[in-house]
Design a protein that fits this description.
Number of strands: 4
CATH topology: Hypothetical Protein Ta1238, Chain: A
Number of helices: 5
Distance between the termini: 53 Å
Helix content: 55-70%
Radius of gyration: 18 Å
Order of helices and strands: EEHHHEHHE
CATH architecture: Up-down Bundle
Mean pLDDT: 92
Low-confidence stretches: none
Shape: elongated
CATH superfamily: Cobalamin adenosyltransferase-like
Strand content: 5-15%
CATH class: Mainly Alpha
Strand order of the largest sheet: 1-2
Largest sheet: 2 strands, antiparallel
Length: about 190
């Protein structure tokens, strides 16, 4: 397979179905942010593997697989013409994992600073990149059709990455650092 096609040399790229859009188009921005999130999830997984968190690595690999589905759904400008890859229950399937990893750390009441172990820090970065992907997908949704499960999945995936970061820190004995001026916002 040849990596370069020269098809994008004039600033456009092909979507699913063959339509071409500029590379700064809202749809391209949305699935590009999902792609970026997947790369950071891979980076987090590499560090978590070296820290011995194989259970987290397995979860992240599944999330990364699903993000390809989300990206494909966002790359399809005519959702009715292409089968949706992100199933209706994809976001709900993450909820037991969110509960599981949230139970590994102390209850949170305030905003916290992101960081801790290297694996946890990369999970925090991946969380924020997924949140950016969600914002891009919502911006696209305001202008064009976007399947609801894609937005839902991004929302829930960012929650999962956040609680996994806290769990990785808790496993290492690294506590949260609260944001000094944060009121109690979580109940």
């Amino acid at each position: 397979m040849r990596i370069y096609t020269r098809g994008g040399d004039r600033g456009k790229t092909a979507l699913i179905g063959g339509k071409r859009r500029y590379k700064d188009d809202a749809r391209v921005e949305a699935y590009g942010a999902v792609d970026e999130a997947g790369a950071f999830i891979g980076l987090a997984a590499a560090h978590l593997r070296s820290e011995g968190h194989e259970d987290m690595v397995a979860v992240l690999q599944e999330v990364a697989q699903r993000l390809w589905d989300v990206g494909a759904d966002l790359a399809a400008p005519d959702p009715g013409e292409h089968p949706m890859r992100t199933p209706e229950g994809a976001a709900a399937a993450l909820e037991p994992l969110i509960d599981r990893y949230a139970s590994e750390s102390e209850p949170i009441r305030q905003f916290i600073l992101r960081g801790g172990t290297l694996g946890a820090a990369y999970l925090h970065v991946a969380c924020t990149v997924v949140r950016r992907a969600e914002r891009r997908a919502v911006a696209l949704m305001r202008a064009e059709a976007v399947p609801a499960p894609t937005i839902q999945y991004l929302n829930r995936a960012s929650d999962l990455l956040f609680v996994m970061a806290r769990a990785a820190n808790a496993r290492a004995g690294v506590g949260d650092i609260p944001y000094r001026q944060s009121p109690d916002v979580f109940r």
